[in-house]
Structures are given as C-alpha cells and as structure tokens.
Amino acid sequence: TSLSTPKKKKRDDGMREHVTGCARSEGYYKIDKKDKLKYLNNSRAFAEEPPADTQGMSIPAQPHASTRAGSERRSEQRRLLSSFTGSCDSDLLKFNQLKFRKKKLKFCKSHIHDWGLFAMEPIAADEMVIEYVGQNIRQVIADMREKRYEDEGIGSSYMFRVDHDTIIDATKCGNFARFINHSCNPNCYAKVITVESQKKIVIYSKQHINVNEEITYDYKFPIEDVKIPCLCGSENCRGTLN
C-alpha cells in the first residue's frame, strides 16, 4: 500500500511541527541550517531582551554564560581552599596530593642496613614522600605479635607508634615505607596527621633529596638498657638507636 506522507508543517517560529505529537516517536531528522540559525537568533534575542519599562531601574551587565560558569567554578574552588585553612585540613589537602601525585621510589640493598628506600626522582624540601601503611593495633596486640615474630624467626618487626594506644604494624601488611632506615642525620622526618578523624603517619622530606639518594629518618626509639647499634655512618652518629 502506498500512503501519502503528510507534508512537514512549520510553526510560526520556524521549527518543524511534529505530526505524531511526540518528537521521540518520529526519530531523528535533520534541521536546515537556515531554520537552526533562525531559532538560535530568536532564542539569543529573547535571552538578551531587556525589560520593556526600565525607568528607575539599574540593569547590571549580564556576563556571558561560559564566563559566568567559569567564575562560579573559581569561586567554588576558592571557597573550598579557604575552608581548609586549619592545620588538620591542610594535612588533608597534602594527603590528597600524596595520593594523586605519588613519589617515584624503589627499594634495594642499603649500605646502612639490609634493605633501604631510595628516591627515583628529585624531591624538594617539605614534601610528602610516602605514607607509613600497616595494620592499626593496640599495645597489647603489639606485645603479643612481637613475641610471635621472634618465635617465627622474623628478625625485624616493623612497628610504628602513633600515640599511646595505637601502633601501626607493617611487618606482614605494609608498603615500601617499612624499608626506610634510621639515620642520626636524616633527610626526612615522620609526622602524625589526622585525616577524617583517623591518625596517619606520613614521611616528609626534611631537605632536598637527589635521585638515587636513600630516604632516612630518625626512629626516635625510647632510651633502654639494651642498646641497638646504629650503622648510619653519619658524622654526628649517636652510636645507638635507643
């Protein structure tokens, strides 16, 4: 059967009239360039049309839509940055930077002790190098694990105290930060920061660090009768870690 296709009707504004009453049921159809330009000109003129009666009114200049959107985004960024002015919030920003801009590091044999962590790119002073990752445990669990590690023949246990009650154990669950050796003249230092009510240990650079230079920090072990010898070899070496 041959059905006569109805002619395309146009509205007064130049747009095509939908025969079925629904644009989605008619599928895709092209619009002439002339009709498109006419529609865009009409919509632009309608948007920029000033009120009819402007007497006693001050009409501010309307910025372009893209310019207004860009200024709104910049103001939103300034608002977020201004909200992070506190020390804790500043640590949050730096911690986010550490997640998205990780330093290139490698671990290999160290002249100080066993394995060590080395920089594969220049690191400026006062930058976050790496987070000390591990399991958060209590002091009681730390004492039990320390004895168990000795029974299992694990010579070194990688435990880092956060506060009086919390210790990070990176012996069996950690990252490259556990390979950082002690030095009496270190190029980094450890700092405890709070991110979303959770304490984290992050290693900061104390000075400029060159490529292939070993990352070190002061363990700051408590003074004990049984001394642990220090092998850092620096000029002001204390001789012991504790």
From TrEMBL:
Residues 226-242 form the Post-SET domain. Residues 103-220 form the SET domain. GO terms for biological process: methylation. InterPro entries: COMPASS_Set1_N-SET (IPR024657), Post-SET_dom (IPR003616), Set1-like (IPR044570), SET_dom (IPR001214), SET_dom_sf (IPR046341), SET_SETD1A/B (IPR037841). It comes from the Eukaryota. Residues 42-76 are annotated as: Disordered. Keywords: Chromatin regulator, Methyltransferase, Nucleus, RNA-binding, S-adenosyl-L-methionine, Transcription, Transcription regulation, Transferase. It holds the Pfam family SET. The keyword Ribosomal protein does not apply. Its main location: nucleus. GO terms for cellular component: Set1C/COMPASS complex. The keyword Glycoprotein does not apply. It is found in: Nucleus. GO terms for molecular function: histone H3K4 methyltransferase activity; RNA binding. This is SET1B methyltransferase. The gene is Setd1b_0.
